[in-house]
Specification:
L-arginine/glycine Amidinotransferase, Chain A; three-stranded mixed β-sheet; globular; binds glycine
């Protein structure tokens, strides 16, 4: 099997991105582009074949490709992002994913952002957030139930997406900010709490046995390393100003 990482070039208008929990601050576009390239190099260094989709004009947030689709073994679900400005991102991603997977879709009035979907084994935890609503999560549940996958809804009110608060760093091991999401929801898993001085540190991108992770959270990196995880640090400081994180910038899947 090959591991594919689909990414999308950075849009020159990223300074006009959507912001929900962060104040706007100036993004250095050249630096952001370099950081995005380094991120793609990290994916390649871990064995991913990167497929880069061009940036469509006028779609400020399109680099955050994770929010447009959920890609599973047998099919992909094209999502319907919670903010209207991001919905036009989906069509261009569908054109690429249909080369690999059967496509299904979330329909109006449902909304789901991929950042709200945490897959652990045969469970998808779905954040009920400012971006993902009951209708969207119900539609997703109906789609995946035919494949033996269960969806569990998780109230997500203190951060942009569920995966801002919890992500998987090893099979059945989750990195979590317990101030942003209830630990009891994930009680059956091994939980690694972030360092409490690094509130935004719970988003990690697992690629097999390795973890791509922001260099801006050194205290939590130490915790992950002490747990025996191989952390591949990347500097995403410019994209973090756009409320981006490591999972947001790619769609990772296996294909024959
Ligand atoms: N700027 C990322 C988002 O709000 O979707």
């Amino acid at each position: 099997m090959r591991t594919i990482a689909v990414t999308r070039e950075l849009n020159a208008g990223i300074g006009n991105c959507e912001l929900t929990f962060l104040p706007r601050s100036e993004i250095d576009f050249g630096r952001a582009q370099q950081q995005h390239q380094d991120y793609q190099s990290a994916l390649a260094s871990l064995g991913c074949e990167t497929v880069v989709i061009p940036a469509p004009s006028g779609l400020a947030d399109s680099v955050f490709i994770e929010d447009t689709a959920l890609v599973l073994d047998d099919f992909a679900v094209m999502l319907r992002p919670g903010v209207a400005s991001r919905r036009p991102e989906v069509a261009g991603v569908a054109e690429v994913l249909r080369q690999y997977k059967l496509l299904k879709a979330i329909e109006a009035p449902g909304t789901v952002d991929g950042g709200d979907l945490l897959c652990v084994g045969s469970t998808i935890f779905a954040g009920l957030s400012t971006r993902s609503n009951q209708s969207g999560i119900r539609q997703l549940s109906n789609i995946v139930s035919d494949y033996g996958i269960t969806v569990e809804t998780v109230e997500t009110a203190k951060c942009l997406h569920l995966k801002s608060a919890v992500s998987e760093v090893a099979p059945g091991t989750l990195l979590i900010n317990p101030d942003w999401v209830s630990s009891s929801t994930f009680a059956k898993f091994e939980l690694i709490p972030i360092d409490e001085k690094e509130a935004h540190a719970a988003n990690a991108l697992r690629i097999g046995a390795d973890v791509i992770y922001p260099s801006s959270f050194p205290r939590t990196i130490d915790k992950l390393a002490r747990r025996g995880l191989n952390v591949v640090p990347v500097d995403l400081s410019e994209l973090q100003k756009a409320e981006g994180a490591v999972t947001c910038c790619s769609l990772i899947f296996s294909t024959p």
